[in-house]
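This part of the workshop introduces the protein records we will be handling. A record pairs a protein's sequence with a compact description of its fold. Backbone structure tokens are a discrete shorthand for how the chain folds in space. The question running through the whole workshop is how a given chain folds. The record below serves as our worked example for the rest of this section.
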Amino acid sequence: MEQTKKNLLILHFTVLIWGFTGVLGKVISIDAVPLVWYRVLIATSTLLAWFLITKKNIKISKKQFLQFFFTGAIVAIHWIFFFHAIKVSTVSVTLVCLSSFTLFTAILEPLIKKQPIQMGDILIGLIIILGIYMIFKFEGQYTLGIIFGLLAAVASSLFSTINSTLVQKSEPSIIGFYELVGGLFWITLYRLYDGSLINSSFNLNINDWIYIGILGTLCTSVAYVAGVSVMRTLSAFRVALVTNLEPVYGILLAFIFFKDREQMTAGFYVGAAIILSAIFLYPIYKKRKNKL
């Protein structure tokens, strides 16, 4: 029981850290693509160091490597869309739009796994669409941010659905490491193509280096390992409920750090409340459905 309470506390702290990534994305001065490149580079290096210290065997088959490697491209795209949405709008708008992950998962998972779409999933999806419509209607000046936030949610639901099948045969930390390796490769390739890597001087200001260091270590590699470890004693239902607090924590942190810059219209909060209500209802609905 004590271990369960400890892991629940660790999970809440991990989700709080995930919510903090939005704040870091706003204060780091560089664009989304180089930001994600630095994040993945630091996270990959940190995880590799952790594997070497713990002497963990990370050997996998060629087929597994290719699966993880190409899934890493989707992870990278998700992060680029996410941080670009923050750059062109606000942390609050981006995090609420990212919450539509539940809607896209309800659509993509049955298609990828060749399963029928459930009517309950469609209902939850319609509620989320209503919330998104409200945000579009009242926060039109952030249209570009809303679009990129939704694209980030699509990418997130896609790689999460893929990972839900991959995790049946491989350890999550191994999957995460090779996906980061894949993400680093694809972003590096893109940056070589557009010349941004060659022309980069790497002369970031001291604050950017500090924030990127926190983003790559604490908010990525450490949070990932911590998030995986607690799943040994906590049910998937409890993990899902706590994870749904990410936009709530993120929006609260954004208010603390940015105050008036994160102030939205009443219509935004109505839309956000509709979306958050739907994503909290979703795991409850799934749990009851599975008992039938």
About this structure: The longest helix spans residues 62-88. The chain has a mean pLDDT of 85.
